[in-house]
Automatic annotation (TrEMBL):
It comes from hydrothermal vent metagenome. SUPFAM superfamilies: FAD/NAD(P)-binding domain. Transmembrane segments: none annotated. This is FAD-binding domain-containing protein. Coiled coil: none annotated. Residues 17-333 form the FAD-binding domain. GO terms for molecular function: FAD binding. InterPro entries: FAD-bd, FAD/NAD-bd_sf, Flavin-dep_Halogenase_NPB.
Length: 462
């Protein structure tokens, strides 16, 4: 197994290793608590002061169990959450059915009020011995002989710190992938457009969208799907899930939000009564994985490593367990001063592939709008399901000039493959096996053999 090592500074034992975590979301804070539990020094850099609500409201039961194992007292979430007693879904038919979680039925969990929960957890993490620095925006990462130099800005100017190991917990929009020679491989264009309706507006409107406090309603539509969550303070969060190219057709996220949700039942009823909606928030929610999730003295965790569709209700649970996992790995290997990047990466990919197959199964349960673009994309076979039709010894065509739709399809199905590079190679070789081998030798290949073969056979029209 290939290993990546860090060197203990002269006169200092591995036990004194310092880890810098970039990102103070649930994932980063979980990693910090787990690392401190192993006696490892931790500096956590968070760009915000938790002044704005973050995406995600549903913390499932097993996520609460994971927080408990980290030593987080129940009061942290109890003060900022209400028990989620019901999730109702209109998925696959107009009739609603009740389920505790679309992917998982292990208890009800809670619905969080954010950013109250985030602030409370951040205070607890800081009190647990983590060097927690808010309002610190990382500007550059530089590899050094014995670790990393991290430069970051604060309200008072630029600062710098050194660390032996970096954990990237900065989320699905991580800006540090280039520092690690990695790229984000995106499998769809899903975005979330959200509106938080205050308790006062809910009372004035005298309507709750059919969603009492402590419940969630999920409804599919031609555009995608939406959900409403009833929070502890009486507020309602309404979120539309659709693709970015669909949003663009409406000009602005606000127009898309209003016009698409007008086609729903519960959300339309609520929005018709709530006046003066002038602003919504939008964030990317696509399924993606980092081409390289670990390397020489660094590892990505949570959404920075790979991110799931919110349909799974797994986002926050994955964030917590991902933070715990990297701490476990670092603790196990610090005595030998080695980090098993290949094995860590293989484990992450295995998690992603399982999720990816599960995601396809659940989207295929909804067939009412199978001719709509949003659903056609999600109903088609993904690369894990597509059969290999090309024999390794088969001759390949050298004069292929694919149209734009074919190139786009390959980029959507196997984003890890560089189509332009592959086309050039195919003009120089005769056999499929040669094309795969040369492609792997001449690129920083993050694609599997199957992904490359699939790209070749799609280009050949097979």
């Amino acid at each position: 197994m290939e290993i990546h090592s860090w060197k203990a500074k002269e006169g200092i034992y591995p036990e004194s290793m310092k880890v810098c975590i970039i990102g103070g979301g649930l994932c980063g804070m979980s990693a910090a608590l787990a690392l401190r539990g192993y006696g490892i020094e931790v500096v956590l850099l968070e760009a915000s002061n938790y002044e704005r609500p973050r995406a995600g409201e549903h913390l499932i039961a097993k996520a609460l169990d994971a927080l408990t194992r980290l030593g987080v007292p129940a009061r942290i979430w109890q003060a900022n959450a209400v028990d989620c007693y019901e999730v109702q879904c209109a998925w696959g038919s107009e009739a609603y059915y009740t389920k505790n979680s679309i992917f998982n039925a292990q208890g009800s969990g809670v619905l969080l009020t954010r950013p109250g929960f985030d602030n409370a957890l951040a205070r607890f993490v800081a009190e647990s011995g983590v060097d927690f620095r808010r309002l610190c925006r990382v500007s550059s990462l530089e590899k050094e002989a014995d670790g990393w130099s991290i430069k970051y800005s604060t309200q008072t100017g630029m600062n710098e710190l050194s660390a032996d190991f970096i954990v990237d917990a900065s989320g699905r929009n991580t800006k540090f992938s280039s520092s690690f020679d990695a790229t984000r491989l995106k499998y769809d264009k899903l975005v979330a457009i959200s509106l938080s309706i205050s308790p006062e507006k809910i009372k004035h409107a005298k309507v709750d969208g059919g969603v009492p406090i402590g419940s969630i309603k999920v409804e599919a539509g031609a555009y995608g799907w939406c959900y409403i969550a009833g929070l502890k303070d009486g507020a309602r969060v309404v979120t539309l899930m659709t693709d970015s190219h669909i949003v663009k057709k409406y000009g602005t996220p606000l127009k898309a939000f209003k016009q698409l949700l007008a086609l729903t039942r519960n959300a339309a009823q609520l929005l018709n009564k709530v006046q003066d909606i002038k602003q919504v928030s939008i964030c990317s929610s696509q399924t993606q994985i980092l081409s390289c999730v670990a390397g020489d003295n660094w590892a990505a965790i949570g959404d920075a490593a790979w991110s799931a569709d919110p349909l799974s209700s797994q986002g926050m649970y994955k964030a917590i367990t991902s933070g715990i996992n990297v701490a476990d790995v670092l603790s196990e290997c610090r005595q030998e001063q080695i980090f098993p990047a290949p094995q860590y990466s293989a484990d992450i990919r295995a998690q992603f592939y399982k999720y990816f197959l599960d995601r396809s199964k659940y989207y295929r349960q909804e067939r009412r709008w199978e001719n709509e673009n949003f659903w056609k994309i999600r109903h088609r076979k993904n690369w894990l399901e597509l059969p290999v039709k090309l024999h390794p010894a088969e001759k390949i065509k050298a004069d292929i000039e694919p149209d734009e739709s074919t190139v786009q399809y390959i980029r959507e199905i196997v984003p890890a493959v560089n189509v332009s590079v592959l086309l050039n190679i195919m003009t120089e070789v005769e056999r499929a096996a040669e094309a795969v081998e040369i492609y792997k030798k001449n690129t920083d290949c993050f694609a599997t053999d199957k992904e490359i073969v699939l790209a070749v056979q799609i280009l050949m029209g097979l």
